[in-house]
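Hi both,

Apologies for the delay on this - the queue was longer than expected. I finally got the pyridoxal-5'-phosphate-bound model through. Below you'll find the protein sequence and the ligand SMILES exactly as submitted, and right after that the structure tokens for the full complex including the ligand.
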Amino acid sequence: MEWTTSELRQSRGVIESYRELLPVSASTTIVSLGEGNTPLIYCPQLSKRVGRGCQVFVKNEGVNPTASFKDRGMTVAVSKAMERGAAAIICASTGNTSASAAAYAARAGILCIVILPAGRIATGKLLQAFVYGAKIVAIDGNFDDALRIVRELGEGHQFVIVNSINPDRLAGQKTAAFEIVDVLGDAPDFHLLPVGNAGNITAYWAGYRDYEPHRKSASVPAMIGFQAAGAAPIFYNRIIERPETIASAIRIGNPASWKHARAAIAESRGAIDVVSDEEILAGQSWLARHEGIFVEPASAAAIAGLLKCCGSNEAAYSFQKIPEGSRIVCTVTGHGLKDPDAIIERMKELKPVAATVNEARRAIGL
Ligand SMILES: *Cc1c(COP(=O)(O)O)cnc(C)c1O
């Protein structure tokens, strides 16, 4: 017999959990790896930084099957692609979309083609696409070039495009907002997240709004997005030809969901802001050391952003006069082990000592 995840009494996957809110029917064969149901972690140290009795929670999307939130959308996109009889899926990627697409294609038994900017993909993510057996094409260009090529190849309908321009991806990604409301009993007051191609901020906003009429929540949050300073087209309101940032997952100069992101920010009375690479790396270290959560640089943009809202007068949104007891959720989008290069650099000082108790004592500083 074939076991399903619900029979195995595990996390059921986002389609089984939220079927009535997703574009699937009884006849859709679900391709799932048990994604979603990720922890919403209360963060006492971050809450203290905000002050005023506010509560900060981190939605840890790094614990999904391929270690990023992309799996939520991919289970829906690949299930729907199978329903339509697709033999192959294709995507452009800064890393995590290809890792996720490759895994779900392997699960479905179909081909996955990924178009990547050569030399610009974090080690762990490229390794994932490779091990799941994707057909990888590296181009001499950036992500925006890769997406342009994918759009053209996808037009022939030979391949189903599984970038976030595929509405099934965004439908699946809404489930993160549903989960947050289910856990908190209401929507938070503020939702902070990194913005790259702007699909996720679009999906969260749609998810919060979809859930309101179901009387699951009495309100919707203000959506506050953060871009890397060197890759901030929405903040600066112009296409960035050569986006640059250490946070490769948000190194995007011409986001596909630009208009939707703008609408989400305007309708929710939120904001868009930028954080520097220095702030991103500091946010990454801070979260690891103070809350025990290790995230990749792009995810740390949300934490850097939160710290900016608490401190800087230049922040697009100030938390200094935020209502007491506000609830803030930060989505951390991907796991830190995917992209260890910046940290490996800092570990170089680690030198072995002689294998004696005395030497170990000295090295510890006793
Ligand atoms: C894809 C991704 C983002 C950006 O999400 P968008 O929907 O493109 O805005 C941020 N962080 C990580 C880890 C990602 O994989």
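Main takeaway for now: Residues 277-291 form the longest helix (15 residues).

I'll put the files on the shared drive as well.

H.
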